[in-house]
Give the backbone structure.
Amino acid sequence: MTLRPGARDGLWMAAGAATLLLLILLTLHFRKQPNPAAQLAFKAERADLVGQMQLGLASASEAEKSAVLAITDQESQAFADQARAAATGVEQERRELEQLLTKGGTQGEKDLLDEFSQLFIEFQRIDDELLKLAVQNTNLKAYALAFGPAAGSLSEMSAALSHLAAANADSPDGKKVMRLAFGAEIGALRIQTLLPPHIAEASDARMDELEALMTQEDEQVRSDLAGLGALAKLSGDADLVTATSRYDQFREIKRQILALSRENTNVRSLSISLNQKRKVMFSCQEALRHLEDAILEEPIEGVTYGRPAKPR
């Protein structure tokens, strides 16, 4: 039997369609059978990135705290640089993970990474503010001035006034000299005792109160020194000149101390570290932990990976 041309063409078309359908079915069949080893490797790659991010966050936080607590500008800057480098590493790993999740992550994993990303933006903002403050060390510099040059000037002033009082003890104005000399000395020492609380204070209002007390004492000290200078016998006295000069030095150093104390960079950076930074750090780590759990709990047919199943 001989087929007509039209029928023969129809048979060829049917055969071609059947072959194409078979290829499509085979492709779909094998697509439904993913490679467990490849899935396991993909899961491990994502979980490893999350682990690196957790470690990077911890390293950044540790370096930040060291920058806050360091006692020199050089040490603070070195630790601040380490903190920024660690945070940069976390951002690089976050981008890598984002690309991997775009290729094959679940929507839940993508949502968790988005949550972390928003928290990490806040983490970086707080870190930037905190580290800029930490490297200035204004409170530490104020303490160094208070217990160094300021204390030295008052010590020399006190010695000069004590010698002045002793030298004039038997003079007609001896009692007045002693009262004015010791009054100036005590007033200056009271100012000195108010400096450390001012440096440690976080409240501007309390600083205002402390400075008001210092101003009162300063007026009294200068009044007592002027009273000594008004005594004819003490005109041009070397001890009085020394005492007045050293107190002027102290007042200038005090001005510098108060300016540094007002900047309050150590107190502010420590407060931020213990409050805002600690909270956002905890939230970031929590988001990463949930993301890690989601990745590890992805099922792979025939493979047990991650947390062991709970016994029934």
